[in-house]
Amino acid sequence: MCTVCNNPKHFLQGKSPLLSRRSILKTIGAGGLFAGLGSLVIPAASASSDLIPKPSNLLTPDQALARLIEGNKRFMQGAMTPFNVIKERNLLVDGQNPFACVLACADSRVSPEFVFDEELGDLFVTRVAGNYVTNDILASLEYAVAELKAPLIMVMGHTECGAIKAAIKAFDDDYDFPGHIQVITSALARAVRVGRSRKEDIARTNVKLNVINLIDATPVISKYVSQGRVKVVGGLYDLKTGNVEIVT
Ligand SMILES: [Zn+2]
User: Fold this and answer.
1) Cystine design at 124: which of 144, 192, 231, 248 (Cβ 3.0–4.6 Å)?
2) Smallest Cα–Cα separation from 37: which of 65, 56, 62, 64?
3) Quick one: DSSP state of residue 57?
4) Average model confidence (pLDDT) for the chain?
């Protein structure tokens, strides 16, 4: 039985997984929490009303990145962690506390939950073909950082990206794609221009530019980054190997 909400469903493996940050501190004490979770530092602006269905997701930015890298290693090896989807789904009905955000391409081959071997409620994912920052995506990421206290954002591009190829074709051949596709190629034109000037792979350049866009995004993400509460990193997923290379 959960001692916080009296809901028997919230009692899992001998402890309640659905706790507020305040109740965690009240139950085991701040010293106990820090002792139990090593170098964990809880973001200072934690709200007492926040629900924490997954205490194991309370991580520093560096811990969050290390967890993504470890999960990606399991994915590369095909050694994915099995999980009980019904148990996870029930656990997350009343709240979420993802430990990382991923801005990924919409490409069907680069699903972040698979790539990082994570479960429901672990990743806050925004996707658009070409994995670039739009106003809508920025708003979503601001919500994840400010309200859900996610400590890490990864911009993840990938090899053989159709959006990048389209952007190069539009740039080189002055080609107009039909419908709204041109919106994407126009948004990626700067990456093509900068990548060419650097003699760098355009997908890699695009990741780096969008990491900078997020780090500089005022007023929310830039503030959290400057305070050290959030890190923004860039990754490049290799379709062949499954490896996510950290590029910035
Ligand atoms: Zn793509």
Assistant:
1) 144
2) 56
3) G
4) 86
What residues have their beta carbon closer than 5 A to ion ligand 1? 105, 107, 161, 163
CB 108 within 8 A of CB 129: no
Cα 222 to ligand 1 centre (Å): 26
Pick the CATH number of 59-246 from 3.90.1150.10, 3.40.50.300, 3.40.1050.10, 3.10.180.10: 3.40.1050.10
Tokens of 122: 């672990």
Angle between helices 202-215 and 189-198 (to 10 degrees): 110
Q: Please tell me the distance from the alpha carbon of residue 183 to that of residue 170, in angstroms, as a whole number.
A: 11
187 CA → ligand 1 middle, Å: 14
Handedness of CA 42, 43, 49, 54 (dihedral sign): negative
Residue 26's pLDDT is 40
Q: Is 152 helix (H, G, I), strand (E, B) or coil?
A: strand
97 or 13: which leads in pLDDT: 97
Task: Reply yes or no on whether the pLDDT at 50 is more than 50.
Answer: yes
And the tokens for 60? 């520093």
DSSP three-state, residue 208: helix
Instruction: Give me ligand 1 centre to Cα 180, in Å.
Output: 16
Could you tell me the distance, in angstroms and rounded to a whole number, from the CA of residue 166 to the centre of ligand 1? 10
Q: What's the predicted TM-score (pTM) here?
A: 0.83
